[in-house]
Amino acid sequence: MIDEVTIENTVVELLRKAVxxxxxxxxxxxxxxxxxxTSEVAKMQFKAxxxxxxxxxxxxxxxxxxxxxxxxxxxxxxxxTGDVEKAIRKGVERATxxxxxxxxxxxxxxxxxxxxxxxxxxxxxxxxxxxTDYVEIHVxxxxxxxxxxxxxxxxNPSQGIKGIKQFALDTLLNAGSxxxxxxxxxxxxxxxxxxxxxxxxxxxxxxxxxxxxxGDIAALEEELLEALNETGIGPMGLGGxxxxxxxxxxxxxxxxxxxPVAINIQCWAARRASARLYEDKVEYGWFT
Length: 288
Description:
By secondary structure, this protein is of the alpha+beta class. Helices cover 39% and strands 21% of the residues.
């Protein structure tokens, strides 16, 4: 059995790791962007970002003052557990005090802040099941700067792939410097309004170096990545060759009369961390 204390302690460590150490695929992408940049202003921005990443890891200090709200993806395997939600909530409250994390979660109407990052449906936990001998937990701390620039549209099916491409371009141009580029774009296509948004956010769990398993979707990811970087928005909106570090797409079949598409934007501080909890051990990594 995986008890609640084990889950709680794992959540604390996941959040500590997520906000202080950038996933290797993101750091590698930032280093590559820095090396190929020709604009001195853009290179200065990349150097500041890379120096910040190094300092955050060395001092175990959050790499950004906005430590986000906390989105969890939990996959339950063939193993008995304690109360998963209760343990995750305790872990978030502890991490807020111990890491520490900025208390960002507020009531949407009164704006009252309990100071714990806990509230109605917060942290938000997505559940799935799998035929495994472990429980897998992913955490994605999501800051407001990038989240506020996310978009969803119900396109006309007649707009087809051209409409999807235009939607991606319009979303990025509208965002400009606000989400602290370079950014990662998660795109959800199909399903329904809510499904496309969920797919867009979950796409951000994938490494920026990954490509969709289906060739047509992978080709669209590559095409959009190249086109969006031609905007020249650059790091922090100051111009440059790299505006988008990654373009990840997930899709679902949709109604014949619908064409939903959504984009969830993540800033360069693309924080995520994962763990697999077995009955006798916990493994931390960058699982996807």
